[in-house]
Amino acid sequence: MIRLAFRNLFQNRTRLAISVGGVSLALLLILALDAIFTGVERQTTAFIDNSGADIFVAQKDVRNMHMASSSLPVTAIDEVKAIEGVEEVTAILYTGNMIVVGEERTLAYIIGLPEDAEMGVPWKIASGKEIPEAGEAIIDERVAQKSGIEIGDTVEILAREFKVVGFSEETTNIVNSIAFISASDFQAQRGNSGVVSYLLVRVKPGVGIEAVVSRIEQEVDGVTALPRASFSGQEARVVKDMSTDVLAIMNSIGVLIGLAVMALTVYTAVLSRRREFGVLKALGARNGHLYQAVLAQALMSVLLGFTIGLAFTLLISAVIPRLGLSMTLEISRASLIKVGIVSLVITAFSAILPIRQIAGLDPAIVFRGK
Amino acid sequence: MTTSTLQIDHVTKRYGAGDTEVTAVRDVSLSVKPGEIVLIMGPSGSGKTTLLSMLGALLKPTDGEIHLNGAVISALAENRLPDIRLKQFGFVFQDFNLLSALTALENVSIVAELAGNKAAAARQKAASILTELGLGERLNFLPEKLSGGEKQRVAIARALINDPALILADEPTANLDSKIGHEIMRLLRRIAKEQGRSVVIVSHDQRIKDIADRVLWLEDGEFKETVTMAIDPVCGMSVEREKAISVEWDGKVYSFCAQGCRDEFVNDPQKFIVAVS
After folding, report:
1. What does pTM read for this prediction?
2. Which residue has the higher pLDDT, B64 or A36?
3. Residue of A nearest to B91 (CA)
């Protein structure tokens, strides 16, 4: 029956192209959207993931950076440093602002770094310095390319001019970018010298991160401490929460398109072979045999569609970075599992009507010349 | 104890009820022996298709019983009939009814696979039967690449693959020219006689009478006339025993198409008796 399904599927190339094309388009929609949002999540958490910190300490009840504001007294730096198991602390300043070049304005998170920062610095430098000094800024390479900025040019950040001394990589996402300036400049511009935004903590080798997190929260007033992975997870969740509805709607559209195309093509395929299925029934095939053939045919179409959809998504994810777009596509395992399940659902539902057709088929049709 | 492959006793099939009730087959009885070829003829609407459907376990009679090799198949539950059709019957159809996406070999082997044979064994058996039927060079051809006669031979191979006791043929020559149609009928006769399989044919084609052992005329759902066919021992023509000129010789009745053949036979019976036997 599997062979019959295979032959039936490939005999009518036009129908095959429509069904596989429709399914691959629908699954491509789902996969690509997932990949975009996974990419956005990854980009959004890139600073945290690459900060080098084991623990992020923020103002009490602040658990992420995106669209959040954290303010800690500078005294917290020494208090955290004094906690057993803490090896190093880097205090950073953080706010959302713009990188302005002439008329070009790019949304950016501004990170103020101390001169001796060991954590939170740009993790990948395309060219120039790694840590900015007073009056200097490090901006993302793509922002620089877009604005026509070279090393040594000036940009406006926090309403003052900075000399660009380095270009970072992987610090731009679909929404905004990251710019690094010195902590002293940051404080001077914002006029809040007694506070920092976050403390990036590295623990001593062999010390449990969770234990240090507990000690920080117990011994330092007004702070929330989270392991880096948890802090990153919270950041990703904010993005996810914002995109869930969009994803759900687009995924539903994808499922409906796939289902409609598959249901129609499998149904017409079975209808066109109604007599042949009747012949098989007359010869002694059981309904179960015929259901197998229909399901196998639907499954093969969906698997082909899935493969083509995945191949196109991989192609798009490889091409997009080369186009200079501030977007990366990442296909996650969860997304593959989800699309796999969607594919199986499409297979099952598209086969329901044809199976009902076959179940009701009278094998005596073969003697009636219909 | 029966010696018949197929035995139908007082079978009736009615459709509908009350004012709209139609009796398609009315109190029909028939017995078909192993190796016997029975031809059922009759006008359109006479009940041939309904009778054939009942014989093939595709339709249950309203009354009466159908026995196959002594077992009552008309009383079997619906879910047991596919197995009976698969293993006990071979079907040959007017339109060949081959699966268009499968090759000749696959069209035959799929039926063996349905009966539980492994794919390799099924293909081997299918290839052997097709080769025997002269299609050894056409095994991997799709039906669209085969002539009408070749398609019907594939259909016959498919009918034979599970060694059925009974072959049911519905207008097997209707879509074939006379030469090919005759070849197909001779093939069916050879299968019946050499392999001892019973063959029931429903057809309008008068030429099929030549190969039949018995011809039944179905009209208004009833057998009106039974014609027993015999071969003229002199010229080899098929003749209706009841209407033919006949001669009794050595305790056996011989039938002839014409007086000339009869006279030739009477002059030297021994010469022709060997040919008949």
Report:
1. 0.67
2. B64
3. A283
